[in-house]
UniProtKB/TrEMBL annotation, chains A, B, C, D:
<protein>
    <recommendedName>
        <fullName>Formyltetrahydrofolate deformylase</fullName>
        <ecNumber>3.5.1.10</ecNumber>
    </recommendedName>
</protein>
<dbReference type="GO" id="GO:0006730">
    <property type="term" value="P:one-carbon metabolic process"/>
</dbReference>
<keyword id="KW-0554">One-carbon metabolism</keyword>
<dbReference type="InterPro" id="IPR002376">
    <property type="entry name" value="Formyl_transf_N"/>
</dbReference>
<feature type="domain" description="ACT">
    <location>
        <begin position="14"/>
        <end position="87"/>
    </location>
</feature>
<comment type="function">
    <text>Catalyzes the hydrolysis of 10-formyltetrahydrofolate (formyl-FH4) to formate and tetrahydrofolate (FH4).</text>
</comment>
<keyword id="KW-0378">Hydrolase</keyword>
<feature type="active site">
    <location>
        <position position="237"/>
    </location>
</feature>
<dbReference type="GO" id="GO:0008864">
    <property type="term" value="F:formyltetrahydrofolate deformylase activity"/>
</dbReference>
<dbReference type="InterPro" id="IPR044074">
    <property type="entry name" value="PurU_ACT"/>
</dbReference>
<dbReference type="InterPro" id="IPR002912">
    <property type="entry name" value="ACT_dom"/>
</dbReference>
<comment type="pathway">
    <text>Purine metabolism; IMP biosynthesis via de novo pathway; formate from 10-formyl-5,6,7,8-tetrahydrofolate: step 1/1.</text>
</comment>
<dbReference type="InterPro" id="IPR004810">
    <property type="entry name" value="PurU"/>
</dbReference>
<comment type="similarity">
    <text>Belongs to the PurU family.</text>
</comment>
<dbReference type="InterPro" id="IPR041729">
    <property type="entry name" value="Formyl-FH4-Hydrolase_C"/>
</dbReference>
<dbReference type="Pfam" id="PF00551">
    <property type="entry name" value="Formyl_trans_N"/>
</dbReference>
<dbReference type="Pfam" id="PF01842">
    <property type="entry name" value="ACT"/>
</dbReference>
Length: 292, 292, 292, 292
């Protein structure tokens, strides 16, 4: 049972905008929505610099019979507002789940946490596929009624493996989540898939980038370990950061303890990042993110 | 020296609005500002309930020669926008410091932290007066060049003391901050002063309301102690909460240790609450607050 | 797979002691252990007051062939040391799992988190039984190969239900964990079971004791919500606190959001409390706890 | 006034021990103390590895007329216990303040926080000297009745400046604290002074080591910024870490805001590190620390 489940309201829509700042943008957008009977429920706007900065906006609006009007609304917004201000924008119904593929290797904590949040209705997604380079978590995933594709990856088979992965997912997903997937995705794969990918890195980036961060943390004697969720780019560990958090460790903790402590942070940070992404809260600002 | 001091931009203004929700409010406001050449730099809007809720908005805008236009802008906004939607609103130049009176008894940590943040330019206020029922902190306050009014308060002299306090402050301050002032302000005093008052309560309200919260915390064996900054109302410890935070304590901590640990939380929480109030981030929503 | 699993060392033992403070206690205990070839690996000692306080000690020691010597060691310690200082003590092999019964109603988050930590080897317990007053989580629990006893409880059937529960568990468990079990256990039941019980309360006690804490938190407009793990006593919500934590909430969060946020804190706090209890880190000091 | 001040008990002593682990160490130490009428009030012991690890111990004890017996006690301990186990140890009266020199450049927040904690009796130190390469904070420091040595440092005058500093401090201090002192101390200086030095680094080391960490944090778009207190070694930013903490930042924060946020973390982290050092809670374990 889940007492906290609340059905998403089908008449609620979300609009995300980014463009060069200039006068009249909010007035144009809000005027556009008002003229079509849409009521703004929540909005956040940020200009990175009062002079010559970039403009970022997230609007949650409510509009009677949104589902049937949405395509026209989007088209009209493009023509009447977006073009004029050279905007990038995204408009969609808040009630439509984001279609997600979860990639995992052998650690189950991030994967299970996302699956569990999804099942209890906390995360508005459709998990359409789990992809793994190992067979270990097959049974676990089956209990959530999600298909599990075991696609082994070696140095030699990587191109072929990525081809299989891409074929499996192309057009079926809006987001790829690397829930402790220990393989690097190539730029070619990301381009072909054409949807964003979120990775959880088990360190407080940029500290301890690379392999074995918890071992590094122990060696260096740090008092906090962290995790970082970021968009995947071709530059390993360098993509725009969405969320980070830390946990306290002490001299008493061995690497195994630190790893466990870190696992708790990883699953929380990744869950927050995925939730925010699916709620359209994250906008890209060059190499960093705006999180509304 | 303070490398972080940045002079406030005199052309930046802030507008706060609350009213019953309804269609077209954002469009009306942003249209109004756009028509006068004001550019919205940042905005946050929240409607408490999509149906029949209340509307809250904070806008930071930039307008050439704001200081000279502000009075007219305010008047026109009242006539053209606010009346139509039955709004409460506040409009002011972001560069004008909030005039503050600090009340204190004998604990110095909250007072000194605010004075120090003010001196280093972190807090855009004018501390016009310190009021205390004890003489202890006189010398300390003098080093900040702030007048110190020592007005003793006993049960018998309270009405007379409050009369003196009111006379001293009336029309001179925009905010009263109780920085560990151990006397209760009467409703009559608050009404006469006519400006908001913020208090720091040394517990995680509503737990341990009343006297000796750290002693209570020790007795109950809690693992975290907290502090709460809230607006002062006639109902002691019941005013709308602005900010709260906690610190970890353990069985090793005696009441004195907990009190010290708590003092660190108190000064941080109060500083955040005062900063947010002075940046017009806090709006009242019945008995609670919206903090943008 | 679980890379963090480390097999418990069968030669490691733990000794917990509490008594009136007095001279020579540590010397007597460490002399006793040394004489039997036991090496102290870790120890924590705390006297609540240098004069007339109580003495608390936790020692982790390593002793060749501990399993075969433990019964004799315990007996000799009782005769040679404990009696002399009127100690309460507990001595046991660190490698022996604590036998646990998990009670749950319908919320799954605390239950699943404990089962998952157990399965991945993070929690050294044997979950011997799940008891619920509802059938909802039966299938979920079955996937962990743990027996599920569905024992409905109404006001009228409570005595009979508790009799069934006690019969089921008597002599089979070392610890009862109430993982969001929405029924109050009677003093009679606790006495009959004769083992400690840990409960997770979904508020930052003593704030918001009683029903609907997250609704209360929303109404009061608090900025943090918390959870409290405590030993169960006959006085509801008044037992010794083991662990607490909080999460930040804002005006944007509805009761459902706060409840979800709270659920994350609940499962973390309960997992820590159970872990610490099973690692013999928690000692009772009247109504509060020492957590080494 | 400071209600939390508690006079240190002159009969309380502290003993710190580190050595190779082996059987009978705790028994030998506690037997030694017991035989001399010292009662152990608190103790923490940790062996880094059950087999072949290092042994670390901190004991707080109470002994009648400690001040007059301490020199003999120390000598006997060296002869009877320390030598046998090849121990490093430190024994001292808990009531004797640590003599401290504070080094600062121009940022006042860490310096003032330490001075203020000292004045209110929170920090058991004697601040015997402030040393600065700038004159800016002279007046501020004077109000605490602490001598202020203004010793400018340029690339050319550095050897001479360090000679002056060393002459000023040699034999007068037990600890040097770099409270945002922007000059690197040479190994020669540290050796000549012969006491430990604690530095506060304004980043979450090892991330953003080097100059301008908050600028780096902004550029990289991190969601948390941190501070690190560590012992100073010849390898810049590489000394053993004593304490770390973080604060949350967002896309809204400019570098100036991040710097302020960071300053709050810096002063807290440094105050904790200095407090723990002065309470003899920190032991060195190679390149990392044990903090009891």
């Amino acid at each position: 049972m889940d007492a906290t489940r609340t059905l998403p309201d089908p008449e609620v829509g979300r609009l995300l905008v980014s463009c060069e700042d200039g006068p009249g943008i909010v007035a144009a957008i809000s005027g556009f929505l008002h003229a079509r009977g849409a009521n703004i429920v929540q909005s956040d706007q940020q200009t990175t610099d009062p002079v010559g900065g970039r403009f970022f906006l997230r609007i949650v609006f409510r509009m009677p019979e949104l589902p049937q009007w949405l395509p026209a609304l989007e088209e009209e917004f493009a023509a009447e507002v977006a073009e004029r201000f050279a905007m990038s924008f995204r408009m969609r119904a808040a009630s439509v789940p984001t279609r997600v593929a979860l990639f995992v290797s052998r650690y189950d904590h991030c994967l299970l946490d996302l699956l569990w949040r999804w099942r209890r209705g906390e995360l508005l997604v459709d998990v359409v596929q789990v992809v793994s380079n190992h067979p270990d978590l097959q049974k676990e995933v089956a209990s959530f009624d999600v298909p599990y594709a075991h696609i082994p990856v070696t140095r030699d088979t990587k191109p072929e493996a990525e081809r299989q992965q891409a074929e499996l997912l192309e057009g079926r997903v809006d987001l790829v989540v690397l829930a402790r997937y220990m393989q690097v995705l190539t730029g070619g794969f990301l381009e072909r898939i054409g949807v964003p990918a979120i990775n959880i890195h088990h360190s407080f980036l940029p500290a301890f980038a690379g392999a074995g961060p918890y071992e590094q943390a122990k060696t260096r004697g740090v008092k906090l370990v962290g995790a970082t969720a970021h968009y995947v780019t071709e530059d390993l560990d360098e993509g725009p950061i969405i969320e980070q958090d830390v946990a306290r460790v002490s001299h008493r903790d061995r690497v195994a303890d630190i790893t466990r402590r870190g696992a708790d942070v990883e699953r929380n940070v990744l869950a927050r990042a995925v939730t925010w992404h699916c709620e359209d809260r994250v906008l890209l600002d060059g190499h960093s993110t705006i999180v509304f």
